[in-house]
Amino acid sequence: MLTGHAEQAAVLMGAVEAIGERAGVSPALMDPLDGPREAAAVRGALPPAEYERHAARGRVLSRQDASVLLTALIAGSRSV
Asked: Please, where are the H alpha helices in the chain?
């Protein structure tokens, strides 16, 4: 998880879950070692209703929109 960006991480998790589902893959199964730990960290960083609200925003993102968000977050983390 990008430290200090739990809301954006929840949006990305929602996007990854939805995009994976549309593609017929399970993102959770693609990284069985780190995936569950990272997902738990993001979920634990926010109250459940807030996590769900942000994840729901991510579920409607296109692949391109999710990529733009991820690129912006990565660029921002490098400037810190």
From this structure: 6-23, 27-30, 35-45, 48-59, 63-78
The structural domain count of the chain equals 1
Alpha-carbon dihedral sign for residues 16, 35, 8, 78: negative
Instruction: Write out the two tokens for 71.
Output: 């690129």
Residue 31 is assigned to a structural domain of this protein: yes
* Domain contains 1: no
Residue-by-residue pLDDT tens, the chain, 80 positions: 446 789 999 999 999 999 999 998 888 788 888 888 989 999 999 999 999 999 999 999 999 999 999 998 888 866 54
Q: Which domain holds residue 22?
A: 6-78
As to burial, measured by CB atoms within 10 angstroms (0-12 exposed, 13-18 middle, 19+ buried), residue 47 is exposed
**Residue 74 in domain:** yes
